[in-house]
Structure formats: C-alpha cells, structure tokens
Amino acid sequence: MSVEIYPIEVAFPSIGRHEHSNTGIPFVHTFESGVAGPHVMINSLTHGNEVCGAIVIDALLRGKLRPRRGRLTLAFANVAAYKSFDPSSPDAARFVDQDFNRVWTSSILDDAANISSELCRARDMRPLIDTVDLLLDLHSMHEASSPLIVAGPLEKGEELSCQVGVPATVICDHGHPEGRRLRDYEGFGNPDSPKNALLIECGQHWAAEAVVVAKDVTARFLVSTGVVDTVDLPSEWTRPLEPVMRVVRVTEPVVANSYDFRFADAYTGLELFEKAGTIIGWSNGEPVRTPYDQCVLVMPSLRQLRPGVTVVRFGKLAKELRLPC
Asked: pLDDT of 12-53, one tens digit each?
C-alpha cells in the first residue's frame, strides 16, 4: 500500500514548560474568572501527531489568556504519544497503546483490569472533563482534505457549529464502531444535557494551513462561549467567514475487516459521487459501492489500516446554512 508523504511545514512546540499545572494533572491548566459563566475547555493532542492544536494551546498559555467569565481549561492530552513523534515515521505517533479517542465509554474507563497508556491518561483527565460544559477538541487529518467540524449526531452539535461558523463543512455522525470519542462522552453526547462539544479536523496534520484554521476556530469558539472577548485574542487569528456552511450527515462507516482493503482512487475527503452504486474501493476483493446518489466520502484513509478500523464514512448532503445563522 503506497501513501502520499506530506511535508512537515510547522515546528513542533516544546511543551515541557507546561507540564506543571494548577490542576494536579500534568499539562492540563485551569483558570477561574470568579464571575459566573460556563466551564470551557480547549483540548489538543488527542492524537500525538496532530500538532496544530498543541501550537494553539502553547500560544494561549504563553500569552497568559485568562477568562473574563466562567472557567477556562487548556489541555495537552496524549503527551506520551506526542513525545514519541519521529519525523521519519510520523503516523506512528498517533497513539502509544490504543486510540485515546476511542476509550470514552464509562464501562471502559471504569474497568481497572484494562490498562494502557491512553486509558491511564484518560482516567487522570476524566474528573476535570466531567465538569466541562463546552469542549473544543482540536484535531487534524491524515490526508490533505478541507477542514471539517465533526458535530456528532445531535441537533445541539449542529447549532453550536453554526454559532462558531468555521470550518464551513459540518459533519453530523455517530462516531466509530471501534469506540466512543471524547466529543461524545457523557453529557456531550446526551440530547437532554446542556453540555456540548465540537471536534475540529483542521487540515492535514503537518500543514501550516491547519494551524491557521485551528487559531481561527479557537478564537471564534472562545468568544462564542462568552469566557473571553474578541480583544483578548490576537486579531490576526480570525479570518473572514465563508457565506455558507454545508451540512453532511454520515449514514454509515466502511470498516475494514482485514488488511485487504484498497480505494479505487487517491481520495482525500469530501469527494462527491452523483450516482448510487459507484465503486469506491475493494474489501477482500469485493467492491465497495456508494449506497445512494449525492454521496460524500468523509475522511478516507488507509494509514491506520487494520481490522476494525473505519477507513471511510459515507455521508449525504443534508442542507446549507447561510452565515451568520
């Protein structure tokens, strides 16, 4: 299997200065305003090779951003994986033992017999995350695709996406069969809870443009929650809004059941297929076809190919939202 090798366009920040924190959780910092308001969290390094979020959190901490209202938490999550990053094998630093973004189910977190580097870190962070009202989880992508908001399956996720306004494509989905994401954990994924979360795929992992997107969405998210004002953030972080947001509803994942999977072309994401039945790949020699007209490919990639991994998701164009909502 051949995959494109993307250049590393950004410098990886040295985050050791942020290890000691006021939370008792290394690399996780919380600041109280003393004024009523939500607990807002900006999370980075859910995956160790997704550096754009770490650049943003490093900048916010060094800039001494403090909330005017509510509480603000700034976090580096899978630091162990980040420390293992090797430019000669950059995809290997996604995680140490298991995907940190597939362990956020209470039964898994409560199972003391189940031990991994990622589970230990998730258990350390869990008590603080249980107090978060609004979460922004900064990610990036294996392939050079346009940035996405991953809003989850609930209407409240779509509404929060519209409030923030960037990126211009909103993916509404139920997650991955392999395990629950942080953005779907407990109240974030409960329609009856006021808690809410967005996962942002800012662009290709090591692209300079992904950092630009991460800064823009972070600034807009923070201001939309009310914890800070626009003047508290660097003015150059915010870019003009696109006039329209496109909403894509994921209907089903394509999950590899072996290492024998290949795509019909070099897909990177958001490819639109007009007709149902179009072959987009082969699994164990059997064709994989689009299930309906106007089918969108969401985040296709074989870089983490193994049995049980989602290699692409099928999405249906749902609607367009004119901004500001």
From this structure: 999 999 999 999 999 999 999 999 999 999 999 999 999 999
Choose which CATH entry (3.40.1130, 2.40.50, 3.40.1350, 3.30.70) describes domain 250-316. Answer: 2.40.50
C-alpha separations of 238 from 73, 200, 221 in Å: 21, 16, 11
- Please give the single-letter amino acid code of residue 322: R
- The amino acid present at 60, given as its one-letter code, is L
Q: Where are the domains of the chain?
A: 16-244, 250-316
Cα–Cα distance for residue pair 69/35, rounded to 1 Å:
5
> Three-class SS of residue 95?
coil
What does CATH list as the number for 16-244? Answer: 3.40.630.10
Q: Is the dihedral of CA 98, 100, 101, 104 positive or negative?
A: positive
247-287 pLDDT, tens digit each: 999 999 999 999 999 999 999 999 999 999 999 999 999 99
Strand stretches in the chain, DSSP E: 28-32, 39-44, 71-76, 134-141, 148-150, 169-172, 196-204, 244-255, 261-263, 272-273, 279-283, 286-289, 295-298, 310-322
Q: Going by DSSP bridges, is the β-strand pair 169-172/244-255 parallel, antiparallel, or unpaired?
A: parallel
Residue 283 burial by CB count (10 A; 0-12/13-18/19+): exposed, middle or buried?
middle
